[in-house]
Design a protein that fits this description.
Elements (H helix, E strand, L loop, with lengths): L8 H18 L7 H10 L13 E3 L4 E11 L4 E10 L6 E3 L4 E7 L13 E7 L5 E7 L8 E2 L6 E2 L4 E4 L5 E7 L3 E2 L6 E2 L5 E4 L12
Antiparallel strand pairs: 1-14, 2-3, 2-13, 3-11, 4-10, 5-6, 5-9, 6-7, 7-11, 8-10, 12-14
């Protein structure tokens, strides 16, 4: 049986009960209800992913298509950044994976009245590597259906490519990267969560001592 995301198990159980009840009441005429069960399994599947052995890589957090790469302002950390915009694939998984190995610093819930107007209505999490490189992942929480969950807390350490929540369905996702990161994807490219590399972090060299 396909591995199922924890967020989807209650829904899958409810659909299974409905299918069983329909068969009890209507017999063979209830066969079309199996389509609901199959659809639920597909939407909430959680297949194992193999993350590439590259500690400086930023892997895709979702199954998606790259729609835009641009330099812009990061409204969450108030910095210059490179933003990669992803659109979740229609038939991909809707799980979210940590793009880097690092510590979960903070999240923004996207409620009204946030300090920065640009962040209103947007859900975002801030991750930081041991080298103090910051990556922010954001999405619009106002889009229906409102099904978002992040299974981690501030201060918790996440492994690169580790599944950390559910971000369905069909949402745009924005990655705000350090401005010195090397982007390794182009618009139109398809990426898999926890597998394909979005960018590579290029650590800034520390100034050397000495005088001239």
């Amino acid at each position: 049986m396909l591995p199922i995301a924890p967020e989807g198990r209650p829904y899958l159980a409810q659909v299974a009960v409905l299918v069983a009840l329909a068969h009890f009441l209507f017999g063979i005429w209830a066969l079309p209800t199996w389509l609901l069960l199959i659809a639920a399994v597909v939407m909430f599947r959680d297949m194992p992913r193999k993350t590439p052995p590259s500690p400086l890589a930023v892997v895709s957090p979702v199954d998606a298509v790259v729609t835009e790469v641009q330099e812009c302002h990061d409204p969450f950390l108030d910095r210059r950044t490179t933003k990669v915009t992803l659109q979740q694939r229609r038939f991909g998984e809707f799980n979210v994976h940590s793009p880097i190995e690092g510590k979960f610093q903070q999240y923004w819930a996207g409620g009204q009245g946030q300090e920065v107007a640009e962040t209103e209505g947007r859900f975002a999490i801030w991750l930081q590597t041991d080298e103090k490189e910051d990556v922010v992942m954001a999405t619009d929480r106002r889009r229906w259906p409102h099904r978002l969950s992040i299974l981690t807390h501030a201060g918790e350490r996440l492994g690169q490519g580790r599944r950390c929540g559910f971000l369905g369905f069909w949402r745009p996702v924005e990655l705000y990267l350090p401005d010195n990161a090397r982007v390794d994807v182009k618009p139109g490219q398809t990426v898999l969560a926890g597998v394909n590399v979005i960018a590579t972090l290029l650590h800034k060299k520390e100034p050397t001592g000495g005088s001239w």
